Amino acid sequence: MAKALSNTQIVRAAMVVVGGFLASGILGLVRTAAFSATFGASESLDAFYAAQNIPEILFVLVAGGALGSSFIPVFARFLNGDDQAGAWRLASAVMSCVAVLATVLALIIGVFAPVLVPVVVDFSPPMQALTLDLTRIMLVTVVIFSISGLLMGILNAQQVFTLPALALASNNLGQIFGALVIVPLLPAGSKIYGLALGAILGAVLHLIVQIPGLSRVGSRLVFLPDPRIPGVTEVLSLMLPRVLGLAVVQINFLVNLSLASGMTPGSYSALKIAWTLMFFALGVIAQSVGTAVFPSLSAFAATGDMDGFRDRLAGAMRGVLFLSFPATVGLILLGQVGISLLLQYGEWTPESTAATAWALGFFAVGIAGHSLLEVLSRAFYALSDTRTPVLIGIISMGVNIALSLILIRFIGDPTSLSRGSFAGLALANSLATLLEGVALWWILRRRIGGLKDRFVIGGAIRAFAAAVGMGVVVWIIINVLGGYGGLITAVIGGLVGVIVFFVLAFIFGIDEARTMPRLLLRRGR
């Protein structure tokens, strides 16, 4: 039977997921560094990142967050009704149907890729041809992730978080192997293909690492491509609006790709890497909490315990906002120093570092909005409402595109890499996401009769004040230690910044300033 976790258990579960995200994030930074040192902010790396978009979009739409958010509430209801056989027949049917669908769609996209690629990117003809080849190679990852993505949902629904979290790290290990081992083995003109082969290896590892967890939860998975199995239709009906919502997000990414691909070579790589760095912080702050709290919210919704639902949700929202504000300040102030330490090797130049930091600062503005979305969207999914987030997401997409077209005219220089106008795309994303998070908050609180607003907003205001104080201290440290090297500046600035933030948060009476370090120490022991 699926069960709800207490607030403390959710934090502990989130710590497990945080560990996985940290491992994945650190390896992701190593992966990004390996890519950057080998190829720099170049046209070929632009082509690889562009080629990743089509398989990623297809996976996300077929079997990504849409499937997990739709599958877990229905699967949890079967488990709560003590219908183990029905739960596993549902899981088998959904996994089989999705794998077959992913295979068919990957083949179709592979055939029509020569038409799609020129529509999406504005590269030179040789780079468009390279993007086409890389896209076709990486389409196989869609099929693999369609299976491993559902395994994550099955394990998370039964409160098993460790292996799914490690799967993310394993995916990065495969890509690092591609960059460091496969790339050097290939001829000079074909080395970029090593990154595509590494992406396939990463997908395989993402699947394999989760398989041992199936025996732990008593798996009865079989190949059962039958959409008539009870629950499958409900999963698909819940999934459809979520697919539309994710399509909205992917359209935003495609707009960014289309606009950035016409700018100075290397612009899209800088934008993509800045997004990756921001997403690393987001994974630690919010995705871990959202992943841990979602099964509990689903269980509360299934039993009609709305008091428990509000309590867990408010705690999760306050927790992610507590961490979002110092992360924003840290990325803005220490971003360039950190990027130079992480990436400035080999073919990666100081100009590429400046360009990535330039975009990262604007992406960082939206961390609070992204964090709220990670938690609030899962609250809607737990209530079996996948439509509301989609409608708000469509509006947000329109805002994002409109802001993108406006801001790239006023921010930066389209002929420059270090201060390119692609930063306008990052700021547009941040502003639209903040508005989207606030809108979902307002709608949900009206639907469930309040959301402990004073508790959440009061904590957020005090956390913001503590982050501002931290920012002043870090800014002073950067100016005092700027001549002593990036490593010293980053280490001292980062450590002092964290200490100052938690001391101020403690003085301001924020509960998380006491509970989080205490839980981390317990977890460490």
Shape: globular
| Tally of separate domains | 2
Structural class: mainly alpha
- The overall strand count is 0
Q: Count of DSSP helices?
A: 19
Q: Report the C-alpha radius of gyration, rounded.
A: 22 Å
| Main sheet: strands, sense, barrel | none
Averaging pLDDT over every residue, what do you get? 82
Helix content: over 70%
Low-confidence segments, ≥5 residues, pLDDT <50?
none
What does the oligomeric state look like here?
Answer: single chain
Strand content: under 5%
The CA-CA distance between the termini, in Å, is: 30 Å
Order of helices and strands: HHHHHHHHHHHHHHHHHHH
What does this structure look like?
With 525 residues, this protein is mostly helical. The protein folds into two domains: 43-241, no CATH class; 266-525, no CATH class. Helices cover 82% and strands 0% of the residues. It contains 19 helices and no strands. It has helices at 7-39, 43-63, 65-80, 84-120, 125-138, 140-157, 162-185, 193-208, 211-216, 232-260, 267-303, 306-343, 350-364, 367-382, 387-407, 423-447, 453-481, 486-507, 512-524. The longest helix has 38 residues, at 306-343. The two termini are 30 Å apart. The model has no long low-confidence stretch (mean pLDDT 82).
